[in-house]
Amino acid sequence: MTHVFISYSHKDKSYADQVARSLEARDLQVFIDDRIDYGSQWPRVIQKKLDLCGAFVLVMTTNSFDSDWVQNELARAKRKRKPIFPLLLEGSEPWLAVEATQYVDVRAGDLPPADFYTRLASVMIQGPPPRERVAAGTSDAAVIGSIVDALRDAEPETEVSIGHEEMILSADVYFYDSEETLTDISLVSEIDDEQNLERARAARDLVESIGWDFLEDEDGDIEIGVERTLLDDQDRQTLAEEVVRLLTRILDISSSDLQIDVMWPDVEETGDAVLIESIMNALRNAEPEQMVSVSNEELGLSMDVYFHDEEDVSASMDLFSGVDDDELQAALDSQDFIEDLEWEIVEDQDGDVEISIEWTLIDDTERRALAEDIVTLMTHIFELSADDLKVEVT
Q1: Do domains 4-126 and 132-263 have the same CATH topology?
Q2: For 378-393, what is each residue's pLDDT tens digit?
């Protein structure tokens, strides 16, 4: 049986520990981040434990919402398609990122009800969705062809994983964009089989002879990786051959034992994805001196993106003292959050507030980033949903 991964802020450790003990009392294995005995390799241990978990329990509080660790863990859990079980320990409503997921209200500080454990246990018994497995007896050429197909279909921010689930080792090919990739094989001494570690060390000459990097730190953890530009099928074929050669050598298996899994970029199942696309379309079609506005009519709020030319824009929202007092205070209370997104928030001598940023929209990546920031700011600061906002061009 795989384990349950608990994601939480260390400021809420007391409650997270209670949840962990309650899961263990039901014979469920638990991983909880206590940062003991792993030293500087802790981030790699976290990643490996998250990737291998059968269920992801999220403890939602203000502390965990503001935690980069928790937000990154949640994003990876969603990208890896882990079953997510949110617990609302603090706050008025669940986070936008898990809006479409059934959550449990534990704001009284109680442990979850019995049906929470029943649902979670059923997921653990079923296990994660099966990965694509190459048929037994398949030739190396056919396995490599399957990997090439996966690499060809991958999109930016997609990860193609080739590995062996039982041996808990894979080569993960991450796509920065449609061509640039990073392939990584990680072995952690506290987790991975010692024989795999020894075979990896024995394969160092092979690793370096094909142009990959081999790094082993003082804790005995090993990182094998390479950055490649995949312009055509010949490049994909070369990378696929190298991955198969390394994994079969390190794991001492045949190529037909390898499994292929594609993790696509996460797409929200809620209205924010539709809203972001609407904003992107407006930004894409706007002309110099036009303005794209994302607004909420009831509160009289508007984030306005003004086009100085075809690419350079200014995005801003003005809140006026005596008119927008509640919203103005909400913005000031969220100052750290706003500045963490690298936006500016300025209060003048009259008590009026402006939230703003300068941006260059050279492509859809930049348009999406700006659109996501606008949605994040307006929904977080003013507790709005994506459905509360509309987009228009003037």
Answers
A1: no
A2: 988 988 888 889 999 8
Which amino acid is present at 301?
A: L
Neighbours of 343 (CB within 10 A): 17
Asked if 293 and 391 touch (Cβ cutoff 8 Å), the reply is yes
pLDDT band at 44 (very low <50, low <70, confident <90, very high): low
Question: Which structure tokens are listed for 148?
Answer: 């090439």
Asked if 394 and 383 touch (Cβ cutoff 8 Å), the reply is no
Pick the CATH number of 271-393 from 3.30.1460, 2.60.220, 1.10.287, 1.10.3470: 3.30.1460
The structure's pTM equals: 0.45
Nearest residue to 276 (alpha-carbon basis) of 177, 201, 371:
371
Q: Among 2.40.160, 3.30.1890, 3.40.309, 3.30.1460, what is the CATH number of 132-263?
A: 3.30.1460
4-126 classified as CATH 3.40.50.300: no
Q: Residues 6 or more apart from 89 whose CB is under 8 A from it?
A: 12, 15, 59, 60, 61, 106, 107, 109
How many CB atoms neighbour CB 342 within 10 A?
A: 8
- Which helix (H) or strand (E) is 49 found in, with range? helix 42-52
Q: How far apart are CA 131 and CA 384, in angstroms?
A: 38
